[in-house]
Amino acid sequence: MRYEVLFEDPMLKKRDDFEDMLEERRNSSDLRYALKCYTPVLYKGLTPCKVSELKQMVLQSDQLGYVITQVSKEKGVTSDEVTGEAAAILEEMAQRLQLSTVRFFAFTLSKVFKTLFRSICINEEGLQRLQQAIHNHPVVLLPSHRSYMDFLLMSYILYTYDLALPVIAAGMDFMGMKVVGEMLRMSGAFFIRRSFGGDKLYWAVFSEYVKIMLKNGYAPVEFFLEGTRSRTAKSLTPKLGLLNIVMDPFLKGEVFDISLVPVSISYERTLEEALYARELLGVPKPKESTSGLFKARKILSEDYGSIHVYFGQPVSVRSLAESRVNRSQFNLIPRHIPTRPSEEILSFVNDSAYRLVRAQEENMVLKPWVLLAFVLLQKQAAEEKQGTALDELTEQAVWLRDLSRQYGAFLHWPDHIPPSEVVSSSLSLHRGLVRISEGRVQLALEQETRGAITPEEELLNKAVVILSCASYRNQALNVFIRPALLASAIHTAASNRKRKTEIYNSFSFLRNMFSNEFILCPGATVQDFEEACYLLVKTGTLQINQQEVLITERGHRTLAFLTSVLDPFLQGYQVVCRFLCEQDGLTEKQFIPAVRKFIIKHLLTGRLRYTEVLSSDLQKNALAALIRLGAVQKIKGYGTLKLNKVMLNSLEDTLGKK
Amino acid sequence: MSGFSDNIMRLSGRMLSQYPAQRDWDGKLTMAPHPGIIPTFSIVTLSDNVPEQEIMKWNGWGYSDSKFLYNKKGQAEFTGKRYRLSGMIIPGLREWMESTFSANLQHKTPAAPILNSSAVQPPTLNEAFLKELKSTGIPFSHDAEDRVFRSHGHCLHEIFALREGKIGRVPDLVVWPNCHNDVVKIVELACKHNVCLIPYGGGTSVSSALECPPEETRSIVSLDTSQMNRILWIDEKNLTAHVEAGIVGQDLERLLNESGYCTGHEPDSMEFSSLGGWVATRASGMKKNIYGNIEDLVVHIKMVTPRGVIEKSCQGPRMSTGPDVHHFIMGSEGTLGVVTEVTMKIRPMPEYQKYGSVVFPNFEMGVACLREVARQRCAPASIRLMDNEQFKFGHALKPQVSSIFTSFLDGLKKFYITKFKGFDPNRLCVATLLFEGDREKVLQHEKQVYDIAAKFGGLAAGEDNGQRGYMLTFVIAYLRDLGMDYYVIGESFETSMPWDRVLDICRNVKARIVRECKDKGVQFPPLSTCRVTQTYDAGACVYFYFAFNYRGLSDPVHVYEQVEHAAREEILANGGSLSHHHGVGKLRKEWMRESISSVGMGMLKSVKDYVDPNNIFGNRNLL
């Protein structure tokens, strides 16, 4: 069987080298740097304009004018009133990018970054490509989102390398922090309400504002495809709203092309590590407040390792759309009249979004610790109480290193240093999560506690560490997910004769089940299957002939590892099904607390193996998948869930079939 | 209409070299050679002693005596005496060509000088048809030169092949009907003997419309209308003229001018294109703002089809008699029959003409101005907006000595550098204007337009520049031949679109051309430029010019075609039309269905099936 036709060998992926941008900061004056001459390359079609002119352009646009007339007719108010309302929305939203604020941040962040991080590594070739892209076409920057740091970091980098500063779509929650909110606004952030579902006027102001900045090449537009910070370090299913907006000017012929630049930001240690874990376990997220941010000062005393930022290959919207979208569909309606995007456009935007998120994932730098997290979590789940010997851990990490490289992981493992040293230095950076005694390593589950605590509290404390650790493992899940789905499919298939069609069906089922959990492009089942087969055949795990799949002698270890990658998720989805089967009436709001309670009970009685199924992210994804598959139905208006128990039962069985 | 006797009004047409005067079966034809063609606008008198055989090029544009070349000093020169530019040195052209295309005078690609008759396939003659044709006395020829001449239009691939001496399928026979009744006889015979007819007017098609379908196995007969070139009558009460369809634009205007009238229909090809061709392609003239396009000018059409003659019973100015059958004829591109006679509106010649030009800081402002002019419905006879590249091109074509060409740019440079700084020479663009009418109104009109222009940052830039702009329209076609001597190939194509899409289409199509050239391996950046040539209430017509240096390419014509194809795709994707006035021919056929819907195609098809069930008019254009 030939797989080469479908995709390139991930091993052969060429990636740029990194430079540490902090090095120069450590060797020269931050003040001089903050006051340096800043003359970025701008878009060739740019007509320079001021922030206030920009607002005028939005308010006077045909697009907004149309909606204002519409709204004023519907509400029976004068169009002046509606225009006033639009102006107020715009006022609340608009950025006020000014260089002086950026310079202030450049100075402050230099100090902060130097304290927190060992290095901030950038692929400079990517920046050169970006500069070229900014010159030629309107640019959209699409960084991954793992930390609050992300967008400050992005602007910091662009300022440092003399590139055009972006305007950034930020959630309204930042506005709660008065001073900081305004500071961010002046460094290019514009604020969007989290939900404005039916508000036509808001949507019109917002989309026109973004489009005008983009079309005129005013500044690169930056936003997070994932919509919010991923608390699990897994990429989130992309949100399509903004992507739709920024692609629109191309689809409607208003610009020749738009460059989408995926940016992968990977943190060796995430600032929000434990915060995320708590949040996933149900400790509510503290509302962003300025004082809260200052409390984070203790963070400043810790070592957060390095950051890698990879500016990916710019993706041309034009080439994405080529032979995919019939642009003449916009010919018959004036372009300023808002229309609901057609099915064709929606599916195009959706596929593009997945491609971009995958591009982010592919260029995420993985540190050795990520591999250690795999091993440590698997050991923990196997209840090896006394931990793992350092030698064994190193051996397993090296094995995993080689495997992940074969699968195309962007692994930064210093090959010139003995593996044992690599392992021990990783462990020492993450000493909060591991305990080493007598040459054996395990997760630091027994934390010191004040006073007596309930078993439930003890479990949650453990879970914090496990979920923190899982957030590192998750960084590499995208590398293994397709082979892991295949491994699990093989595992479930009848013992001796592994028929390919049967395995494909099982793969397809699992892939469908988990498509809210991992980035699996809709409609690409065959391609994913082929890719997985290719990787496992190439690495000598499987042999595949016309009908059958054979596991090689040395393939068992790989398969065992891969199956265990998916296991926590299989168990998690299973327990959610079980839980739902036992419910009678349930609203969507009650779901998380109730399922959490259910899981805690089962964990405490030892009936569940994986503590990480406590993650509300997993639970939400499972529910979304079940709704998508029709096993659960949302009753509109009441928020109640209608359960198809026959189907839930059968899904639970299928997931549990081993 | 005694003033319009046959002898005076009959013109020999341009095809004298092909005219079979020497042949024994052609005793009747005794036409005097025409002394030359002197249109009103720009062409100077041609002396009488030009040999007939060399009046038209066989493998390039226009008159044989008129062409651009580099003289021994390496200076560009335009030969001949027909045009204002004729006999002049054009000092800037060489540098412009070298810098725009990276062309080099050392790298020449000369054309095959004469037609090699042995390269032409022997004619497939239908003897029975031929025999009956002879008995009608209508002149015909199967001479290779005559056949090759009528086998093509002026698409790049057609001319490129001729220059290389490559001849494909050509008509097997050429016939020269002298009047409507001759055409009726020919069509009858063609139906009787199942011969394929391809009507031929001026041969200026740029849509592959004249190409013989290679799959055609029947004898192909080219029906040359050039002898049907009389004005049959002029009706001064109704201001109409009844004209034979083979008349060429400049002759029609000149003859009407002699009686104090004009049609005002001036397509850029009017030196060579014919009335029948205009009708068959839905032509558009430069001064349509005053006189209208061909569909506005035509009052009555007579067409011979395999089913018989189609015409209306009266000449009412407008009728509500079902769908207008004229609209089946206009744009039918020779697929339904031969247009033989047309009644056209005529107007008294304008008392006063004035050229003008306006410089805008950038193309966007220029388009906004044209849009405003259209909104106020005060467009002059012609208003055209060139982009920056074309503005520079126009600059390069400035001749060395001439009072009339004095210093468009010099003057201009002076005033934008001194008084009106802020005009970026790499962004500014120019609109050319032509006003017509009685003197007072023209001056008033002129002021109105300049006032609007001023609101968009436009500065009046003088009459000379305007006049020169229009003159260049007629010589630009000659420049392609010069380019082809030096590895540069190119062509123009047009479209129409709503106002709100003008800028988007101009930008995107130009960028697409550049991108495609790069992708297709063109070694040097292409010239990719456009101009807005017509304004309407609801939109505009835009012309694109595109050319590149093809050194290093093994199949330049194929690359050219791929790029043009991509450009057309881009136009359609951005809401532009398949064609504003060039027509579809065979070149753009593939997009017809998406342009007019399947039902629309079915409607046209059913008309074709009724009118010409045996596909006698088998040029396979359009459908």
UniProtKB/TrEMBL annotation, chain A:
<dbReference type="GO" id="GO:0031966">
    <property type="term" value="C:mitochondrial membrane"/>
</dbReference>
<dbReference type="Pfam" id="PF19277">
    <property type="entry name" value="GPAT_C"/>
</dbReference>
<keyword id="KW-0808">Transferase</keyword>
<comment type="similarity">
    <text>Belongs to the GPAT/DAPAT family.</text>
</comment>
<comment type="pathway">
    <text>Phospholipid metabolism.</text>
</comment>
<dbReference type="InterPro" id="IPR045520">
    <property type="entry name" value="GPAT/DHAPAT_C"/>
</dbReference>
<dbReference type="GO" id="GO:0004366">
    <property type="term" value="F:glycerol-3-phosphate O-acyltransferase activity"/>
</dbReference>
<dbReference type="GO" id="GO:0019432">
    <property type="term" value="P:triglyceride biosynthetic process"/>
</dbReference>
<keyword id="KW-0472">Membrane</keyword>
<dbReference type="Pfam" id="PF01553">
    <property type="entry name" value="Acyltransferase"/>
</dbReference>
<dbReference type="InterPro" id="IPR022284">
    <property type="entry name" value="GPAT/DHAPAT"/>
</dbReference>
<keyword id="KW-0012">Acyltransferase</keyword>
<dbReference type="GO" id="GO:0016287">
    <property type="term" value="F:glycerone-phosphate O-acyltransferase activity"/>
</dbReference>
<dbReference type="GO" id="GO:0008611">
    <property type="term" value="P:ether lipid biosynthetic process"/>
</dbReference>
<dbReference type="InterPro" id="IPR002123">
    <property type="entry name" value="Plipid/glycerol_acylTrfase"/>
</dbReference>
<dbReference type="GO" id="GO:0006631">
    <property type="term" value="P:fatty acid metabolic process"/>
</dbReference>
<dbReference type="GO" id="GO:0005778">
    <property type="term" value="C:peroxisomal membrane"/>
</dbReference>
<feature type="domain" description="Phospholipid/glycerol acyltransferase">
    <location>
        <begin position="139"/>
        <end position="268"/>
    </location>
</feature>
<dbReference type="GO" id="GO:0008654">
    <property type="term" value="P:phospholipid biosynthetic process"/>
</dbReference>
<dbReference type="InterPro" id="IPR041728">
    <property type="entry name" value="GPAT/DHAPAT_LPLAT"/>
</dbReference>
<protein>
    <submittedName>
        <fullName>Glyceronephosphate O-acyltransferase</fullName>
    </submittedName>
</protein>
From TrEMBL, chain B:
<comment type="function">
    <text>Catalyzes the exchange of an acyl for a long-chain alkyl group and the formation of the ether bond in the biosynthesis of ether phospholipids.</text>
</comment>
<comment type="subunit">
    <text>Homodimer.</text>
</comment>
<keyword id="KW-0285">Flavoprotein</keyword>
<dbReference type="GO" id="GO:0008609">
    <property type="term" value="F:alkylglycerone-phosphate synthase activity"/>
</dbReference>
<dbReference type="InterPro" id="IPR016171">
    <property type="entry name" value="Vanillyl_alc_oxidase_C-sub2"/>
</dbReference>
<keyword id="KW-0809">Transit peptide</keyword>
<feature type="binding site">
    <location>
        <begin position="281"/>
        <end position="284"/>
    </location>
    <ligand>
        <name>FAD</name>
    </ligand>
</feature>
<dbReference type="InterPro" id="IPR004113">
    <property type="entry name" value="FAD-bd_oxidored_4_C"/>
</dbReference>
<keyword id="KW-0576">Peroxisome</keyword>
<dbReference type="InterPro" id="IPR016164">
    <property type="entry name" value="FAD-linked_Oxase-like_C"/>
</dbReference>
<keyword id="KW-0597">Phosphoprotein</keyword>
<dbReference type="GO" id="GO:0005778">
    <property type="term" value="C:peroxisomal membrane"/>
</dbReference>
<feature type="site" description="Important for enzyme activity">
    <location>
        <position position="384"/>
    </location>
</feature>
<dbReference type="InterPro" id="IPR006094">
    <property type="entry name" value="Oxid_FAD_bind_N"/>
</dbReference>
<comment type="pathway">
    <text>Glycerolipid metabolism; ether lipid biosynthesis.</text>
</comment>
<dbReference type="Pfam" id="PF02913">
    <property type="entry name" value="FAD-oxidase_C"/>
</dbReference>
<dbReference type="InterPro" id="IPR016166">
    <property type="entry name" value="FAD-bd_PCMH"/>
</dbReference>
<keyword id="KW-0472">Membrane</keyword>
<keyword id="KW-0808">Transferase</keyword>
<dbReference type="Pfam" id="PF01565">
    <property type="entry name" value="FAD_binding_4"/>
</dbReference>
<feature type="binding site">
    <location>
        <begin position="199"/>
        <end position="205"/>
    </location>
    <ligand>
        <name>FAD</name>
    </ligand>
</feature>
<keyword id="KW-0007">Acetylation</keyword>
